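Lab manual, section 2.4: Encoding a predicted structure.

Procedure: take the sequence of the chain (276 residues), apply the prediction step described in section 2.3, and record the output as structure tokens. A sample record is shown.
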Amino acid sequence: MQRQRSDADPQQHDLLRVCRIGRAQGLKGEVTVQTFTTEPERRFAPGSVLVDSQGRTFTVAQSRTFHQRWIVRLSGVEDRTSAEALNGTELYGEPDDPEEMAEEGVFYPKDLIGMTVVPAAGNALGLPADMTIGTVADVIDGPQTLLKIRLRKPADGTRDALVPFVEQIVPDVDPDADTLTLDPPGGLIPGLGDPDVAAEDDPIDDLPDADTATPATPVTDADADADPDADAGTRAMEDTTPSAAGDQADPGDDSANGDAARDESVADRTGDTARP
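Recorded output:
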């Protein structure tokens, strides 16, 4: 069923929370799971390997959905007693290759947070490309993914601005340079486009360190268990420390969503919600 892997501790490596095991289902070792992934079909496909916070690995033997809930059987878990012993265990998966994701226009929220935001070359507002708009403070999930931009120069009493994460407004994301370019329409971001703002000498180097901006509390999807299709889109990153595997929680218990972990969710600039 499981073997120890000392190098798989989610607290030490960049693993992503995929699900939390809930109640046993039936007598043959199946369990219900609360999902934290936008790709349950891939993560719960037979043969997929997941790891818990103790470094134990689990291989998916089979999976299915019933009444909009995922039910999974893990290799070596053959009876109800073994399944019940896993209640509350959180399982993690390896992140995808960041270069391949960038080519698809898909990013993990954690990789966007802290990026420097600058105007795109030839932007509609005529802003100089060497000015700094701010930094990405948060990535917010919803019908449309939003970037919460912490403005370098607040305007009209507004410190933050919400920007749709779509290619028309965010034409380029450069993980290597840790920058993100904007081509916003007029009125989207307070103060942008004003003559006195555009004329200022505002080089990127003047931007304070990213750790001076306090990210807002991320938005989570408390209803992921009730409807796996609701995972399509993105879910904002939570804190990075996984909860102990011994926590007893049921997928139907919304209070379990408050545990700190980094969920497997993606921000898709192209508008597609599922990855191949």
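Check your result against the sample. Residues 98-104 form the longest helix (7 residues).
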